Amino acid sequence: MKNSLLLITCCLGMWACTRTVDPVNAPTPPTTTTPTVQTKTLLTGYEIIWGMDFLPNGDLIFGEKRGRMYRRSGETVTELTGLPTDINTSGQGGLLDIRVHPNYAANGWIYASYAASAAGTTNTQLNLVRFKLTENRLTDLQTIFRASATNQWKGHYGSRIEFDKSGLLYLSIGEGGPSTYGGVNSPNKNAQNVQTEWGKVHRMTDSGAIPADNPILPGNTAPTTVFSYGHRNPQGLITNPLTGDMWESEHSAKGGDEVNILKKGSNYGWPLVSYGINYDGTTISASPTMAGVENPIHTWTPSIGPCGLAFVTSDSLKSWKGNLLVGGLALNYLSRLELDGNKVVRESKLLDGNRVRNVKQAPDGSIYVSVENPGRVLRLVLR
């Protein structure tokens, strides 16, 4: 009898050790370590700090939406002069993103996007400029891209600037136009109109020229700067350092904010489909998906108001390495998304209660976050 029980026990033990676990329903393995986040305030007392980036020597270039730009070198902050004189700060406009050329050491270029006044109209446009720094002054200022002056309500400019691994420049722009109502009867279909610059992610050379391999979109006979379309208000743009893909985040209406992986020539749906609804509660689309429209890899409902993206690549950030950080304007936190390839498997909330405008990984591996009310830059390190 004892021998029989021993045999049954051994068989059950062998089965338990060799059985296959369903990968879909398997429990998520616990995080092995929970690092302590330490926060230091580097700058405070500013207006909205929208754009910021680092020079090779570690200096921080940052701007205020109201049309001012600064350089932080060590503990010293100096205001820069020579900015464009047509910056329009009404509504959601102003001085927007700032990006240092990845080959800055050789060419000295820095890029900035801003909402611009246009002569002869009360509408606004969006400009992309590049410039060099001579001491504390912008020099060699060049406008390399303009979105037409058709933004009537002075909202949804985007806007982020990013470079891919081959050195091409990407610029995200919101749908602008007369309104931001979603649905097939929307009065604003800028994002679906490939003849307009609004509601798009543009790809160009670092001087603003059209790359020969840009897509030829329906109705066009040649490539334009448009790389992807159907975007509502894309305020996050980052190159995935592992795959080279361009990742983008955008505001939907009430619910349905998105993270997308951009594909050349693809349509991302706005205003025809959305995972959200209009602010007045009306339905945007019966289904959030549509043939010919790329589906987001991640959505938020309620809306987080995603603004700024950063991939964590530094070993100093321990278990965060490989995560995607997303600023949150509406729900007031910094989102840390854990990834399995191109899938989001877990979200953690950081800096809860802070309206996060931008997030960057610094050359020293720490994380810089700009938050609002007042405008501040925080430095995050893990212990």
Descriptive report:
It holds the Pfam family GSDH. It is a single chain. By secondary structure, the chain is mainly beta. It has two helices and 24 strands. The chain has a domain at 43-296: Neuraminidase. The longest helix has 17 residues, at 2-18.
CATH top level of the domain at 43-296 is Mainly Beta
Characterize the quaternary organization of these chains.
Answer: single chain
Helix/sheet category = mainly beta
**In percent terms, what proportion of residues is strand?**
35-45%
Element-level helix/strand string = HEEEEEEHEEEEEEEEEEEEEEEEEE
Average predicted local confidence, pLDDT: 92
- Helical proportion, percent range: under 10%
The shape, in one word, is: globular
Sequence stretches where pLDDT stays below 50 over 5 or more residues: 1-32
Biggest sheet layout: 4 strands, antiparallel
* Reported CATH architecture of the domain at 43-296: 6 Propeller
Q: Strands of the biggest beta sheet: in what spatial order?
A: 1-24-23-22
Q: How many strands appear in the DSSP assignment?
A: 24
